[in-house]
Write a structure and sequence with these properties.
Rossmann fold; alpha/beta; elongated; 3 domains
Length: 328
């Protein structure tokens, strides 16, 4: 299929979708930089892409460039079986000429998070020119990932804190990145004590409910969700840090969408540096807030954060005052 030196077909797959998507993102950025733009970049959703559209994108000649980059996402897991069969045939070199049907001017990338390894298409793509499987990191690799992320943010982390962070978060690298960002926002020195204070069981869904209630000016529901978190043992500073984190995401998404209303979720995810799931939920939530109000609320949150940490106001009282202020 892909042994011809004139073709370049890449197969990236694996359950660690953080590293998988990071690798594809790096490939796209390198291509866009070399091609001076994304004119010759095509990204296809494997679930909806029809055979004719896939072939059209692959066979298209590059515009003012030597190459095109075509990326097909989750085609094995979500694409239709009859389209699979046609693509397998298309990827098979012609029996008469022995030449691949994918032109040398096209770099074709298949990206899969959870492919069915029993399928004929998966087995076909194992013969691609470049293959990389992104499995979950081993413990020592995960430690190196944490150290690298912290160092890139010009911060420090204690060795014991690395172990505790891995114990709390596990192999979810999307959440790991977000937790590291949150911890560094709290302090440039990550300690076990800070992790115990700020990294707990996943309470994001309850925080989302609280922010939804604030957006709807429903103080009763906002206070109810806050009280639930407190009764479940969540620390006041942790709850505040999660509210700050979500308001920061809302600000980023609101600002990007107001400056360019044509951005899709993939483009937003790339520009904001956030997981697509976070983008989707935050976009839906952002409709309840104005950009000016978000900026004002974010400054208020940072002010309350400082007042709590300096002992000028008690944590629970601060949360109640904040919610009342935001729901006016």
């Amino acid at each position: 299929m892909c042994n011809s030196k004139n073709t370049m077909i890449i197969f990236f797959y694996g359950e660690d979708d953080y590293r998988l998507k990071s690798a594809v993102k790096k490939l796209k950025e390198k291509f866009i930089s070399a091609s001076l733009g994304d004119t010759n970049l095509a990204i296809l959703d494997g679930k909806t892409a029809a055979y004719n559209e896939i072939v059209r994108q692959i066979l298209a000649m590059p515009f003012l460039s030597r190459t095109r980059l075509v990326i097909i996402e989750n085609f094995i897991s979500l694409g239709k079986k009859d389209v699979h069969e046609k693509i397998i045939d298309f990827l098979t070199p012609s029996t008469s000429s022995g030449q691949a049907k994918v032109p040398s001017s096209t770099v074709l990338v298949f990206m899969e998070t959870k492919p069915d390894k029993r399928t004929a298409l998966f087995k076909k793509l194992l013969k691609a020119d470049k293959i990389q499987e992104f499995e979950f990191l081993e413990p020592e690799q995960l430690r190196r990932f944490v150290y690298r992320k912290v160092e890139n943010r010009k911060a420090d982390i204690e060795p014991e804190a690395v172990s505790k962070l891995i114990e709390y978060v596990g192999n979810d690298l999307w959440r790991m990145k977000n937790e590291i960002d949150k911890l560094i926002s709290f302090s440039k020195k990550i300690t076990s004590e800070n992790i115990e204070l700020l990294v707990k069981s996943q309470v994001e869904s309850d925080i989302f409910k609280m922010i939804d209630a604030i957006g709807q000016k429903n103080l009763k529901v906002a206070l109810y969700e806050c009280q639930n978190l407190l009764e479940n043992g969540e620390n006041e500073l942790y709850i505040l840090s999660m509210i700050v984190y979500q308001y920061r995401n809302l600000l980023i998404i609101k600002d990007l969408t107001e400056r360019n209303r044509n951005l899709n979720s993939w483009a937003l995810s790339k520009k904001a540096g956030l997981h697509p799931f976070v983008i989707q939920k935050t976009m839906a939530q952002s409709h309840n807030f104005g950009l000016g109000d978000l900026k004002k609320s974010y400054r208020t949150l940072l002010d309350f954060d400082l007042r709590i940490k300096t002992g000028k106001i008690e944590g629970r009282a601060a949360l109640s005052l904040l919610l009342a202020k935001f729901c006016v």
